[in-house]
Design goal:
mainly alpha, 2 domains, about 80 residues, about 5% strand
Length: about 80
């Protein structure tokens, strides 16, 4: 269940407190300690499979890295 779907259901059963309490107990999204969704880009929030640069504590995706690499001091060798 995606987070947006979870929020949508919460608005639909807001008036029924017993159902709301039970729904929150069993259907709330888990806090992740590892995996793809735990490593997000600091700049844009992308969580894709490849291209998340975590080296040197950057934690940015490859697209954002290409935009700001020269500002960070990286040089392109071709």
């Amino acid at each position: 269940m995606t987070t947006s779907h979870y929020d949508k259901v919460l608005t639909q059963i807001k008036s029924k407190t017993a159902k709301l309490k039970r729904f929150k107990k069993y259907n709330a999204p888990k806090e992740r300690s590892c995996g793809r969704t735990n490593h997000k880009c600091k700049r844009c929030g992308r969580t894709g499979i490849g291209g998340n640069i975590k080296k040197y504590g950057l934690n940015i995706c490859r697209c954002c890295f290409r935009e700001i690499a020269t500002k960070l001091g990286f040089k392109k060798y071709s």
